[in-house]
Every structure is written in structure tokens, then in C-alpha cells.
């Protein structure tokens, strides 16, 4: 194995900075100051110091060793990217693998110092560190920014224009949203809230920005303080139109960089501020606690209310989302048609075809940006759940085996996410068996009927069961929420078989949007995923309760070349045929070319 | 509606006692001092004061009103039994129905007193009352025993001989079990434990008793105090053999009535005592806290370790259980044969046929007692989940409709539980549809494969889904654990779609026993339940984790007269046929009579 000297030098520089500050261990999460899932380059210190490019991972650097913790989606990719860096991969949730806290407990001694940037970890995570490490005499230094200290070429803070989402598109005005938030706050006994989630803030103020790749959000904080509402946002990002929009809603605008000062001056004066330790940073928590002590207020622990309000879509949002998904589905279907009919005739590679698909989306009305970098993975590459082909490293597509494409766009009208796996030529029986099981799982979940009160944990086995029946698991959740002209991943709900650590599982509620994406990932061989997006709908209400179900939002054929009827039970076969019948009915009006229509009819034939 | 004067007089007497003590509200749970599910007559104060005979319910008596809280299994029965008593039924978990605490919060005022017997509620429940009521100035008086105060004819404390379960039958000796408990205690950082659960104590000391109906347990407490172990049990219950058995295991025996004194004298001397607020009484918690304060010890909150140790059966237990279930299944099958072939020819009623079945069990080797009172319910009666026919009130069985029998025995070798619903003649299409859905649910759960780490909440939808698909729910869990020559219901695991309030859901582990009993209950029409008992087994272990599955313990035909193939998907049909094939294979050697064997072959034919 060759040494990765670039990473080794960066780590050496970091260790010098650590020594200078008297720090024995440094923890670097993948996070900005807002717990965003995707972070701007300015905040990519974890990637900088270890070379792992996945979207989730925490680096711990000691004087003589370093470890990276990441989840099952990234095991294969991280193994490759960490090679030669001297950084050890810790496979999270695998049997016998130490957690970060267990590792630190084992390594750190009395009077040693663990340093991190308290703005980049949640209050909850910070409290866990306190509980696990301070009893053994470890000191926490939460004011250390490793990027500031040892990343000379660090990119600047992103700064892009903000725009307004008009009420007709948002379905609800800012004043209305603010009263709902205040009502929820008051239910929790609080009058004050510091919002830090960028998607929550953009939703609340009906604005969007462009500070984070694939997330139409702006760096910001919002402070709801009694009757007063302040938005902290970079002055340079605001146009007059945005200023007017905010002012009309009674929102006071302050510069993003004033948040520290504002928190230091926060006067609670007997009032209570709500703290959600799952979303608020450790540093902000400390500031709020200081404010409470300093000015005679209280910190109440609770659930930040915007995330749930945002997750339950209103009628306008739902109508727009349905429309956007239909057009997005038609674009993807055209793309799949092109790939399937031209493979072997036209040269294709993972990067070139992704570019083609991205281009097709960009031409759709209201296109803003991709909702995440398109995952375009051929053959064994698709076994890496979040594989990203790059111009430097990609594979050719050949007329054999399977190709997986997971993609989506954000449009003025909704954010999409969809995955299809297609045959490019002959495939093994095993692949067809796996594809069929994945299709069965996707359809079973999509056709579920269940009582209100269920969380995703009640439903996960419907999608995952066909894989478990083959002694196969996919090491990720089955489904995630999706924002409205916002982040492609949002909570509070999800569909998983195990709760995330410390998660307060959220009920599945009518109006929520959730993905349904079971898969099979066989390292070194193939990866299969089929992802439809579902809208939660109300069913019958009777003496037994309120029944709920799902409606499909995605209308893209599942590749029948990959279905092995031997593994398709009759109920799933009916569901597949019914789905394809609707796909045909819905897409035909959007497709003019007779040859594509003909292909579509064949691709959606009843089997 | 006629007034129930007996109950009204009892409540009046209780209110006089309350007034004398200055009590404004009195809470009477269904509980002994050990949180047993079935309680001895001595402890049936709740039933005495309101007339409701179900196994779960809490009565709250105010000066001018009274309410009974019970769960979905009992709504129909409670409605009937409370008629004319003036006691209002509160349907727990129904939408908009106040919880007990919400009710008390609404009704009670500053400086008023809520009284209860602190020995009869859990520490957890008591703490909930403290948190909800003391802020509004309500005083809690936990030393009030309403039975002592207003139940002149209260039965005496039960007192029956105890016997020993030899090591060969227990599979593990007392000393071995005690070291496992001490190891678990030490993992929690504790050295001291007061065990109050009667089944936990009997399992730990390899003894059984007869103080509670349908539970082979003895009233007792156990104190593990460093290296010393004491069993508090009524002296009159002990034979020399039991004393020798306990003494050989190093267990000190003290009288049951000395527990108060022992707790008052408990010297922790710097040590920590483990408190599990879910199983320990509020009164004991107060005593332990006193002891900790008085003698410089600590109370550590944690999970009482015996329940889990007991739930994971050892090899000897499993081998005996399999054998016992086989014989028990053969007896029930003979019974079903007799009912189905004699209905319309021989007079039958719910009580007489139950007596016949109970008698057949009593003749089996090693029979100790019924594991619960046989539920023998014809027609609409079966819609009441825990219906009990009595010599005073029962129905005739007629050659039409369906009959449900839920029954079991405790034998030297295991405790059984099984439900079958059979056609006695012509039935409606709806009944066959419902029966088929129940069978499909039971079989899907029994045939599940899943990863270690799942709790019952991950699996419940497999059994319940076919009912939800018809917009029908059954208002109870799908499955419960079962003891070994012990209680028919045991934790810590279960199969439910929602966790019980405050429940720490337990993983399903290999060696556990769990019931699989979906149902359909249509008030006023019919009730259907099919219950098999499952053993959790280990499947493949690979890079994705340890897969688990179930093996059947119950071998009794499902009535094919009630299966409507239109609702039977092919996978379920295969599972049903495979199950019936095994039933036939396993039961044939146990049945000598050719006419029954012939009937069995027909009843288990492939469809």
C-alpha cells in the first residue's frame, strides 16, 4: 500500500497546532455550525484532514493515531480512500467495533484535553462526551477550530444571493408560520427559540439561498424572542426584494456574523428558551445556558417545532410536489430509454451519462439545482451506496450487467429523489433474484396500510423483509423525509428498523413525504436499489383508529428485464402491474415521440 | 338500567373510610405487592369495589364519582360489568380519553389528598403521580390500604406448600443462577438487589408454590445483599426438603412478614442497591431510598436482571418445553376432534366443554394446574378477548358459527398457551375471510427471518398487517413471553406495534419463547384468534449480522373449514400446508385411535 503523503502532512500540521494549544485529542465531525447534512467547502475540515469524501464521518486525531467513524453506506469507499493515510476505519454499528466515546474513554487519561469546535457538534453529542469523559478527568476544550488552526488554504464562507418564495408557491405566509411556531413553543412552555437549522429557517421565512451544495439554503440563524423575530443572515446576500418581504412579515434582519454578540446580549428576563439538544450546537447550548443564568431565564429542553411543521406538507406544497415529480419522472424515463436503447452503440461512461441526465433535468421548468450529486454507478461500483464517479475516476458502461442511477432535482415546486437500476445487457440469475426482491420490498411498503401512531420502525420490515428472507441486509435506513424546494433529506420521520442513537422516533403523519428505497449491495459484484417517493395519505377512520397509507409520487418504470417472476409473489405482481399501468397513463401525455411512447408501453406491460 | 346496589354499598363504605382519613381520592390498581399479573383473592380490592372482573384495570374513587381504566381487551366486558355501579369506564388508549393522571390533574385541587397502597403500584407509576400532581399541591398518602379499611370479608393471605424443581429439570442450579445475577448486578455497578417479582424469585431459587391462581409461585421477597442471599417466604409454606435445598444453595430463609423489618434494618454501608422502577413497588422504593440515606449507600436505577435471564431458556428447559407442547397439542387436537364430530349430537355449552378440555389436560403427565382459566367462547362472546364463561352465565354451543378456545397448562416441563377457533357448522363468508387473514398473519410472523437487534415492534406488522389491510385492528399485542413451569405471561420481550408507556423495549433473543396470536374481534358478531407459541432460533450469521427466526412449539390443526382460499396468498398457502404436514407427522405417534388419526389426516390435508 502506498502512503498518502498529502494527508499525512496535513495531519502532522494539525498535530503541531494541537501541541501548541496543549490538546491531546481532537475530534472533527462532518458539520457546519447548523448541523446541515451537506456542508459548504468552508466546513469540510474532516475531509481535508483524512481524505474521506463521504457525507458522514467523524475523525478523531490523537498524537500517535487517528480513526475515522462512518456508517455502513460508506465502508467500502472509506476503506479505499483512507488507504495509506494511517487513519483507521471504525465501522459504526458493526459488532465489536468501539464507538467514538468508547474509543476516547479507552485512550484518554486524567488531565488530558479533548478539543473540538463546539459549534460543529450537537449539544446532545457534547453532553455525551461530558458524561463519558469528564468522570475520568478529561478536560473538554470546545473552542478549538482545527480548520482555523491548520488549514491554510481553507475556502471562504459561502455567500450567495437569497430569493423569496411567494405565498402562492409556499402555501402559507411567514406570519402564519410564525404564529404556528409560537403556539408550539408555548405548548412547551417557552417564549424564546434560537433556530439554527438552515432548511428550517428558509422554510419559516419563505426564502431560499445557495450557500450549500445541493441545498437551496442560506447561512443563517433565527431568533424568536417573545413577539420579536430576528433573522441573522449575511447582509451581502440580501436584495431589496428580500428585505421588503422580511420587513412585511415583521422580521428584523441582522448580519450573520452578529449572532455571537446577540447571544451574549440575550436578555431572557424571566422567560424560557427552548433547547433541542438534537439540533442545537453545543456552543449555542452553552450560550443559552449562560444567558439564562445571567438574565434570570430558564432553558427548557424540548423538540424544535419547525422541523415537524415543515415535514407535514400543506395542500399547495403537495399539489406542486405531485406535478414536479411527474415531470421529473418523465425526464428520468426518457434518460433510461436512451441508455437502454443506445448501450453498446454509443460510448457511455458513468460521468457522461450522469451529465446527460443532469442536463435533461436542468431543462425542466423551474429547475434550481440538483438535489444531490447524481450517483451514477455501473456494476460493482453500485455496491458502494453513495458512490460518486468523478472525471478522474469512473467506469465505462458496457452492454452487460446493471447500472444504478440515484438522482434528483430541486425545482420551484419541489425537491425530487429517485433511484432506478437497469439492465444494460445479460445479467446473472442472482441479480434478477435480488432485483425482484428489492422490487417486492419497495412495493410492499408503498402498498402498506397502517394505523396512525406507527413510526417508520413499524413499517421497515415490509421493505426489508424480502432481503432478510435471503439472509441479506442493507446497511442503511429504508426511507427519509424530503423537503419542499429544500433539502433532499429531512426529518423528523424516517423508515428504519432501528432508531438512531438517542432518536425520539416520529410518527408517520398524513402529508409527510418519505422515500422507499430498499436495496441489495454485494461488495465487488453489484448494487441494486429501487427508490420511489411516497406521500402519506389518510385512509378509513373507524372505531379501531385512523388508518393511513401511501400514494406514489414517482412514476418511472421498473426494469422488467430484471424481474424474475419465480421470485414475484402474486400480490407483488399485481402491485407491479398496477403501478406500471399508472406510470404509462401518467407519462404518455408528457412524451411526444412515438418511439419512446412505444418503448414505454413495452416497459410497462403487464407481466 | 338496574342499579348495582352491592357495588354502590361497597363504594359508600370506602368513601366513609376515605373521609375518616381525610382522603379526597383513592386509587386502586389490580395488583398484589409483587406486581403479579394474576393476583390472589386477598388482593382483589379493585374487583371488590367496582365489580369488574377483568385482569387489568385501575379504579379511581372520588367523593362524587368513580372511574375505571382498562385496556381494549376488556372494553365490552367492562361496559357490561360496570352497568348500574355508577362507575364510568375510561377506554385506555382510545382517542380523546383522559389517562388516569390527566383525570386526577383535572379533578384534584390544592391541599387535597390522593391515597393508595404504595405496595400495590410500581415506583414508576408512583413517580408519575408525584410529577403530575404535587406541583398543583396534591398530597400523596401511600400508606392507605382500601381493602384493610373497607372490605370486612377480605380473604386471608394465601399460604400453600412450596416444592423444589430439581437441577435436572431446571437445567441450572441455584448457585449458578445467583452468580449470573450477581455478575449482571455488578455490570450495573450495584451489589444489592431486592427482588419482588414472584416468578423471578421462584425461577432463581428453583422452587414453585401455589399462592396465586394459575401461577405456580409463592408469596416471597428475595434480598441479594453482597455475598448474602435471603429469601422471605411464609414459614408455613416450607417443607424440610425445601429448607435443605435452599440451605444447600447458601440461601438464608426468613419469614415473609419480616420484609418490612428487614428493609428498615437494611445497612448498605457505602454499597449500591439496584432499583428497577418498572417492577419495584413505590413503597419498596421509598424504603430503599431511606436505607441509602440512613446508612450511606446509593440507589442505582437499572434493569432487574432476573427477568431477562429467565426469559432466555436454557437447553434443558427448551427440550422439556418442546416435549410438553407436543403432548399438550395432542390433547387439544383430541378435544377439537371431539367437539367438531359431536356438535349437534351431544349437548355442549361453553362451561361443559371447557371442563372436558381441562380434564384432558389434567390427565397429562406432570400436570400442575391450568396456566390460566380456559377461555371458552361461542359466537359473539369470543369478541370479548378475555371472556370467561361461568356456571352462572354461559352459552350453549350450536352446530353453526365459530367457537374459540384459548387454554393452556403448567406441567413439570413447561407452561403452555394455545388458541384455536373452529367452525361448528355453517359460517358466514366474512368469518372465513377474517379467519384466513388471521391465519395468514400468524404464519407470516412465525416464518419471519430478521436480524438480531429487532424488538417485537419491528415484527408486529407481519401478524397484524392482514387485518390492517381490511381496516381492522385488534386492540392488544400480538405476542408475549411465557415462563418455564411459571407464569403464562412474562417479559421482558413482547410483540406489539406500540411500546407500553415507559417500556424499554427488549430485543428478541434466541431461546426466548413468544406467542403469536393475531385476531379479529367484531363486537356482537364473532371473535377469531389463532395462537401458536414460537421459540426464537438462530439462523445464518454473516457480514450483515446474526439472523434469527422462529420454530413452532404448537402442533394443532387450523380449521380448514374456515379457510377461504380466495384470501390465502400462495406463500401463506405453502406455509399452512407445510405446518399441517408437520402437525400430522408429530401428532400421529401420540394418537392411537384410528378414527382420530383419520380425522387428523383430513384436518391437515394439503389445500
Summarize the structure.
Chain A has 607 residues and is of the alpha+beta class.
Q: If you had to describe this structure to a student in words, what would you say it looks like?
A:
In chain A, the strands form 8 sheets. Chain A has a 6-stranded mixed β-sheet with strand order 4-3-2-1-5-6, sandwiched between helices. Chain A has a 6-stranded mixed β-sheet with strand order 12-11-10-8-13-14. The model of chain A has no long low-confidence stretch (mean pLDDT 96). Chain A folds into 3 domains: 5-150, Creatinase/prolidase N-terminal domain (Creatine Amidinohydrolase, Chain A, domain 1, 3-Layer(aba) Sandwich), CATH 3.40.350.10; 163-310, Creatinase/prolidase N-terminal domain (Creatine Amidinohydrolase, Chain A, domain 1, 3-Layer(aba) Sandwich); 312-603, Creatinase/methionine aminopeptidase superfamily (Creatine Amidinohydrolase). Chain A has 19 helices and 28 strands. Chain A has 607 residues and is α+β, with helices and mostly antiparallel strands. Chain A is globular. In chain A, helix 4 runs parallel beside helix 5 and helix 16 (429-446) runs antiparallel to helix 17 (456-468). Chain A binds chain B through residues 95, 448-451, 453-454, 457-462, 465, 468-469, 471-473, 475, 497-498, 539-540, 542, 544-545, 547, 569-571, and chain B through 95, 448-451, 453-454, 457-462, 465, 468-469, 471-473, 475, 497-498, 539-540, 542, 544-545, 547, 569-571.
Amino acid at each position: 500500500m502506498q502512503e498518502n503523503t498529502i494527508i499525512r502532512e496535513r495531519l502532522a500540521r494539525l498535530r503541531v497546532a494541537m501541541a501548541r494549544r496543549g490538546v491531546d485529542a481532537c475530534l472533527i465531525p462532518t458539520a457546519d455550525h447548523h448541523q446541515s447534512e451537506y456542508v459548504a467547502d468552508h466546513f469540510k475540515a474532516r475531509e481535508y484532514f483524512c481524505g474521506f469524501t463521504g457525507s458522514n464521518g467523524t475523525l478523531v486525531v490523537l498524537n500517535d493515531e487517528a480513526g475515522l467513524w462512518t456508517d455502513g453506506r460508506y465502508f467500502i469507499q472509506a476503506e479505499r480512500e483512507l488507504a495509506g493515510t494511517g487513519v483507521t476505519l471504525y465501522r459504526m454499528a458493526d459488532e465489536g467495533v468501539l464507538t467514538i466515546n468508547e474509543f476516547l474513554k479507552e485512550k484518554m487519561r486524567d488531565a488530558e484535553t479533548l478539543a473540538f469546535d463546539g459549534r460543529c457538534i450537537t449539544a446532545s453529542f457534547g453532553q455525551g462526551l461530558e458524561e463519558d469523559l469528564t468522570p475520568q478527568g478529561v478536560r473538554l476544550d470546545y473552542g478549538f477550530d482545527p480548520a482555523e488552526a491548520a488549514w491554510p488554504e481553507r475556502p471562504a464562507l459561502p455567500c450567495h444571493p437569497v430569493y423569496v418564495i411567494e405565498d402562492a408557491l409556499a402555501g402559507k405566509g411567514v406570519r402564519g408560520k410564525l404564529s404556528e411556531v409560537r403556539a408550539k413553543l408555548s405548548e412547551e412552555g417557552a417564549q424564546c427559540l434560537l433556530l439554527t437549522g438552515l432548511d428550517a429557517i428558509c422554510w419559516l421565512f419563505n426564502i431560499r439561498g445557495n450557500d450549500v451544495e445541493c441545498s437551496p439554503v442560506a447561512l443563517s440563524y433565527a431568533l424568536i424572542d417573545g413577539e420579536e423575530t430576528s433573522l441573522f443572515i449575511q447582509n451581502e446576500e440580501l436584495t431589496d426584494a428580500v428585505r421588503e418581504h422580511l420587513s412585511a412579515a415583521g422580521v428584523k434582519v441582522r448580519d450573520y456574523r452578529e449572532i455571537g454578540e446577540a447571544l451574549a446580549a440575550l436578555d431572557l428576563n424571566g422567560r424560557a428558551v427552548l433547547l433541542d439538544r438534537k439540533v442545537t450546537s453545543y456552543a449555542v447550548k452553552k450560550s443559552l445556558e449562560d444567558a439564562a443564568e445571567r438574565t434570570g431565564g430558564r432553558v427548557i429542553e424540548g423538540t424544535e417545532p419547525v422541523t415537524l411543521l415543515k415535514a407535514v406538507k400543506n395542500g399547495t406544497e403537495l399539489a406542486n410536489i405531485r406535478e414536479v415529480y411527474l415531470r421529473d419522472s418523465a425526464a428520468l424515463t426518457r434518460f433510461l430509454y436512451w441508455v437502454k436503447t443506445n448501450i453498446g452503440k454509443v460510448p457511455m461512461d458513468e460521468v457522461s451519462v450522469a451529465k446527460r441526465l443532469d442536463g435533461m433535468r436542468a431543462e425542466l421548468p423551474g429547475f434550481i439545482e440538483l438535489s444531490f450529486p447524481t450517483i451514477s454507478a455501473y456494476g460493482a461500483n453500485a455496491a458502494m451506496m453513495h458512490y460518486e464517479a468523478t472525471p478522474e475516476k469512473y467506469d465505462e458502461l458496457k452492454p452487460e450487467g446493471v447500472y444504478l442511477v440515484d438522482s434528483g432535482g430541486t425545482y420551484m415546486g419541489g425537491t425530487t429523489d429517485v433511484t432506478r437500476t437497469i439492465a444494460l445487457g445479460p445479467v446473472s440469475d442472482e441479480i434478477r433474484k435480488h432485483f425482484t426482491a428489492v422490487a417486492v420490498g419497495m412495493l410492499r411498503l408503498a402498498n402498506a396500510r397502517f394505523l396512525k401512531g406507527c413510526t417508520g420502525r413499524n413499517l421497515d420490515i415490509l421493505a426489508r423483509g424480502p432481503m432478510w428472507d435471503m439472509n441479506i441486509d442493507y446497511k442503511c435506513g429504508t426511507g427519509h423525509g424530503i423537503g419542499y424546494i429544500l433539502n433532499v433529506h429531512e426529518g423528523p420521520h424516517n423508515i428504519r428498523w432501528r432508531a438512531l442513537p438517542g432518536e425520539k422516533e416520529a410518527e408517520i403523519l398524513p402529508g409527510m413525504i418519505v422515500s422507499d428505497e430498499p436495496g441489495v449491495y454485494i461488495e465487488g459484484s453489484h448494487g441494486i436499489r429501487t427508490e420511489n417517493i411516497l406521500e402519506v395519505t389518510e385512509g378509513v377512520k373507524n372505531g379501531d383508529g385512523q388508518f393511513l397509507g401511501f400514494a406514489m409520487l414517482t412514476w418511472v418504470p421498473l426494469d422488467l428485464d430484471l424481474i424474475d417472476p419465480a421470485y414475484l409473489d402474486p400480490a407483488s405482481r399485481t402491485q407491479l402491474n398496477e403501478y406500471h399501468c399508472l406510470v404509462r397513463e401518467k407519462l404518455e401525455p408528457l412524451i411526444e415521440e412515438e418511439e419512446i411512447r412505444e418503448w414505454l408501453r413495452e416497459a410497462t406491460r403487464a407481466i
